[in-house]
Amino acid sequence: MGHTGCGDTRLGSDVTAPLQRLFIVRHGETALSITRQHTGRTDLPLTAQGERDAVALAPRLTQFRFAAVLSSPLQRAQRTAVLAGFGAALQPDHDLLEWDYGAYEGRRTVDIRSEFPGWQLFEHGCPGGESPQAVGVRADRVIARVRSIEGDVLMFAHQDILRAVAVRWLGLDVAKGRFFPLTTASISILGYDHSIDEPAFKLWNMSSN
């Protein structure tokens, strides 16, 4: 199992008042994640490998207790949550829908750049779809919801909205999300270093892929 950007997965020096953690999970593999096509609102199922990877998440996640389990309403995220053992607790959140790629839905970055050299999703957005600023607003709403919950939160969603949530958790501009890719069926943990004034990555992109 490989991972980047590590840290202690248990938070808080005061065991009587642990600091909140947000566990974020990218959904399992789909046919279009294999081909690296932008898949926003297209509601695809998991592949057979994606289902196996989702099942493999269970022993890594069920050891923790979560005050809430949030998910994108799209089937690839919800199916991942169910196979990981959290179907009964699942709460859909439309703010966790993937980036609306508009005219770039189903296209690959390399093909878009052949027409628009230098295109970056997190800087330029998508014609007919969402801007980075609009996605950042959604990410901020997600974070506000999470921080209103007492206890750790688990979230199943998609690569680009989760990247936006992660950098906005740190208080960074949403454009910084481009530097934090996520593989399918990966686990990351957001939290704090010493206090709520110090948001931090505790773990990033832990995956068996």
Short description:
With 209 residues, the protein is of the alpha/beta class. Helix content is 31%, strand content 17%. It has 7 helices and 7 strands.
What would your notes on this structure say?
With 209 residues, the protein is an alpha/beta fold. The protein has a single domain, classed as 3-Layer(aba) Sandwich (Rossmann fold). It has seven helices and seven strands, in the order ββααβαβαααβαββ. A seven-stranded mixed β-sheet has the order 1-7-6-2-5-3-4, sandwiched between helices. The model is unreliable at 1-16 (pLDDT under 50).
Characteristic terms for this protein:
209 residues, alpha/beta, Rossmann fold, seven-stranded mixed β-sheet, 17% strand, globular, disordered N terminus
List the helices and strands and how they pair.
Elements: E1 2-4, E2 22-26, H1 31-34, H2 48-61, E3 68-71, H3 75-83, E4 90-92, H4 109-115, H5 121-124, H6 132-147, E5 153-157, H7 159-169, E6 187-192, E7 199-207
Parallel strand pairs: 2-5, 3-4, 3-5
Antiparallel strand pairs: 1-7, 2-6, 6-7
Following the backbone from N to C, one meets helices and strands in this order, namely EEHHEHEHHHEHEE
Large-scale geometry? globular
Question: What structural class should be given to the helix and strand makeup?
Answer: alpha/beta
- Overall number of structural domains: 1
Task: Compute the separation of the termini in Å.
Answer: 7 Å
Second-tier CATH architecture = 3-Layer(aba) Sandwich
CATH class: Alpha Beta
The fraction of residues assigned to DSSP E strands is 15-25%
Main beta sheet, described? 7 strands, mixed
Number of helices: 7
Beta strand count: 7
* CATH domain fold name: Rossmann fold
Helix content: 25-40%
Low-confidence stretches: 1-16
Mean pLDDT: 92
- Strands of the biggest beta sheet: in what spatial order? 1-7-6-2-5-3-4
Radius of gyration: 16 Å
